[in-house]
Amino acid sequence: VQLQASGGGSVQAGGSLSLSCAASGRTFSSYVTGWFCQAPGKEREFVAAISWSGGYTDYADSVKGRFTISRDNAKNTVYLQMDNLKPEDTAVYYCARTTSGLSRERVLYNYWGQGTLVTVSS
């Protein structure tokens, strides 16, 4: 399985970006996809996750109400709509996949994309 994250860029505070995570190769019928972010000098941390059906989602408190995760299984793609961006959202964003259920634990995610950089200026 390969995951390709895209859509990063530079925006001003209050702006929006939409990230995409496209999967290719062997895909499993039931998995959760998550987004994580890593700012310079910090640990990689959980942002959001979505179940295979799309019926269950989870968000970090810091992004709740501003970010929306969604998926289109026909396209093997998961999206992260990021609105009202803040300078503290600046980080490399990674998508990842797990078959361990809806989780915030990055160690449970065994497939990772290469990351896409989001920069938010004040």
Label this structure with key terms.
122 residues; mainly beta; seven-stranded mixed sheet; four-stranded antiparallel sheet; 0% helix; globular
Task: Reconstruct the topology from this structure.
Elements: E1 2-6, E2 9-12, E3 17-24, E4 32-38, E5 45-50, E6 57-59, E7 67-72, E8 77-82, E9 91-98, E10 111-112, E11 116-121
Parallel strand pairs: 2-11
Antiparallel strand pairs: 1-3, 3-8, 4-5, 4-9, 5-6, 7-8, 9-10, 9-11
Structure description:
The chain is mostly beta strands. The protein contains no helices and eleven strands. The protein has strands at residues 2-6, 9-12, 17-24, 32-38, 45-50, 57-59, 67-72, 77-82, 91-98, 111-112, 116-121. A hairpin with a 6-residue loop joins strand 5 (45-50) and strand 6. The radius of gyration is 13 Å and the shape is globular. It starts with a strand and ends with a strand. The model has no long low-confidence stretch (mean pLDDT 95).
Summarize the structure.
This protein has 122 residues and is mostly beta strands. The chain has strands spanning 2-6, 9-12, 17-24, 32-38, 45-50, 57-59, 67-72, 77-82, 91-98, 111-112, 116-121.
Strand content: over 45%
Separation, N- and C-terminal Cα atoms: 37 Å
Compute the number of helices: 0
- How many strands? 11
Structural class: mainly beta
Largest sheet: 7 strands, mixed
Low-confidence stretches: none
- The succession of helices and strands, N to C, reads EEEEEEEEEEE
Let me know the average pLDDT: 95
Query: What gyration radius follows from the Cα positions, in whole Å?
Result: 13 Å
